[in-house]
Design brief:
Elements lengths: L7 E4 L13 E6 L8 E9 H4 E9 L6 E6 L3 E7 L3 E4 H5 L3 E5 L5 E8 L8 H5 L2 E3 L6 E3 L3 E4 L4 E4 L1 E5 L9 E11 L5 E12 L3 H13 L3 E2 L2 E4 L2 E7 L4 E3 H5 L4 E4 L5 E8 L13 E2 L5 E3 L3 E4 L4 E2 L3 E4 L10 E10 L4 E2 L1 E11 L2
Parallel strand pairs: 1-6, 6-16, 10-15, 17-29, 19-30, 23-28
Antiparallel strand pairs: 1-30, 2-5, 3-4, 4-16, 5-8, 7-14, 8-13, 9-12, 9-15, 11-14, 15-16, 18-21, 20-27, 21-26, 22-25, 22-28, 24-27, 28-30
C-alpha cells in the first residue's frame, strides 16, 4: 500500500500558502547488485494535493550501489483571488521561488517545465470545485528551465502567473503542473511534480477593492510553518484524555519564520472543509476527539509554540484497533492579514 502524503497549503488574498520545509517530497531510487543484467525501477509516490507525483523510472544495468534523489518544497500550491490583466511572481507573493535540491552524491542535469495538466492530474475533488487546466502555457512560466546541479546544491527559478484581461475569467479556477526532472543517459531519471492551483477574483468590483486596499497598505503579512505537518501515533488508549506530547513524545509545533508577530487560530476541522482527502486505510475521526489546548495565540518573530494536542477517544470497544485521520487548520486569526493557511494531519491507531 502506498500512503499518500499531502504537503498542503493554501493562500488568501493573492498570497501563496507554501509547504513546510521539513516535509520535502523526495524521489529516490537505488542501484543494487543483481544477478540479472536488467532491473526495472519504478517508484511512484502519490502526494495528494491531490495528484502530485514523485516517480523514478529507468533500466538499471550496472551493478552499483548508488543513491539518487531530488526534492522540492513546492508540493501543491493554492492561490486565491488573482486579478485579471495581471502578472504575479510567486517569489514576490511568497518570498521564495521554486526550489529543487539535488539530494544525491552526483552532479545532475535538471530540467523544469510547465505542463497543461492531463485529466488524471486534476483530482475528482478539484474537478467538483470547478478546477480546470490552464488554457495555455503562456499563463504560467518559469524563469529558468535548465540547470547543472552539483551534489547538495539547490536550483532556484521564478514562477510567473499571467492572467489575461478577460472579464469572462472572473470566478474561475485553474491548475498548472510543473515537472522538475533529471536528464541525461547516465542517470536514473527522477521527476517531481508540483501543481499550482489558482482562482480568479469573483468580479471587477472585488478586484478594484482588493487592489485599493493593497495600495493603501491595509494588509499585513504573516509567514509561519508547521513542524512537522504530520503526526502518526499508535496504541492510543480509549476512555481518557491523552496528551500526545507527554505520552508519545510527539507534537506538532508552529514557528514564526516571518518578520511580523502574528495571532494564529488553530482548530480541528472535517476533512471535507480542507483540500485534503481521506487516506487509504483510515477512517475520518470526529473533530471532537482531537483538540488544541491553545486555540488562539500570539506568535512572536522567531518564536515557536506548541498548541498542546489532546486526544480523547471514546471508551467504545468497537473503536479498538481502528485507524483515524484528523485535519488541523492553522491560519492568521485576522482576515485582513495575508498569510499561509496550513492543514496539518494526525494519523491515529487505537489500541486493541
Amino acid at each position: 500500500m502506498v500512503m499518500r502524503n499531502i504537503n498542503c497549503v493554501s493562500l488568501r488574498g493573492g498570497r501563496l500558502r507554501r509547504p513546510t520545509k521539513q516535509s520535502h517530497e523526495i524521489a529516490w531510487a537505488k542501484r543494487r547488485p543483481r544477478n540479472d543484467t536488467s532491473l526495472n525501477v519504478f517508484v511512484l509516490v502519490a502526494l495528494i494535493l491531490q495528484g502530485s507525483f514523485i516517480f523514478a523510472q529507468d533500466q538499471v544495468k550496472e551493478k552499483e550501489d548508488q543513491e539518487f534523489g531530488i526534492s522540492t518544497d513546492f508540493g501543491d500550491v493554492l492561490i486565491d483571488n488573482l486579478g485579471i490583466g495581471r502578472t504575479y511572481n510567486l517569489r514576490e507573493i511568497a518570498g521564495t521561488p521554486l526550489k529543487v535540491k539535488n539530494k544525491s552524491s552526483n552532479t545532475i542535469n535538471l530540467f523544469i517545465d510547465v505542463n497543461i495538466p492531463t485529466e488524471k492530474m486534476i483530482t475528482e475533488k478539484r474537478k467538483n470545485m470547478g478546477v480546470q487546466p490552464i488554457p495555455s502555457l503562456a499563463w504560467v512560466q518559469v524563469g529558468q528551465s535548465e540547470f547543472i546541479l552539483p551534489p547538495g546544491e539547490t536550483a532556484f527559478t521564478d514562477v510567473l502567473i499571467t492572467i489575461p484581461d478577460d472579464t469572462s475569467l472572473h470566478g474561475k479556477k485553474f491548475q498548472a503542473s510543473i515537472h522538475s526532472r533529471t536528464t541525461g543517459k547516465n542517470f536514473i531519471q527522477l521527476g517531481v511534480w508540483s501543481h499550482v492551483m489558482f482562482s480568479i477574483i469573483q468580479n471587477p468590483e472585488d478586484q478594484a477593492k482588493m487592489e485599493k486596499n493593497q495600495q493603501r497598505g491595509i494588509r499585513k503579512t504573516a509567514d509561519f510553518t508547521l513542524l512537522p505537518d504530520k503526526i502518526y501515533v499508535t496504541n492510543v488508549p480509549r476512555g481518557r484524555p491523552v496528551d500526545v506530547r507527554k505520552e508519545f513524545k510527539k507534537t506538532m509545533k508552529i514557528t514564526n519564520i516571518g518578520e511580523n508577530p502574528v495571532e494564529l487560530s488553530v482548530k480541528v476541522i472535517p476533512i471535507a472543509y480542507s483540500p485534503l482527502s481521506l487516506q487509504t486505510g483510515f477512517e475520518e475521526g470526529s473533530s471532537s476527539w482531537l483538540r488544541a489546548e491553545k486555540e488562539l495565540f500570539q506568535l512572536d518573530v522567531d518564536s515557536v509554540v506548541d498548541p498542546g494536542w489532546i486526544l480523547s477517544i471514546p471508551n467504545d470497544p468497537k473503536l479498538s484497533g481502528r485507524k483515524f485521520m484528523f485535519v488541523v487548520k492553522v491560519e492568521p486569526s485576522d482576515k485582513e492579514v495575508i498569510g499561509f493557511t496550513f492543514y496539518g494531519q494526525f494519523y491515529v491507531e487505537v489500541e486493541q
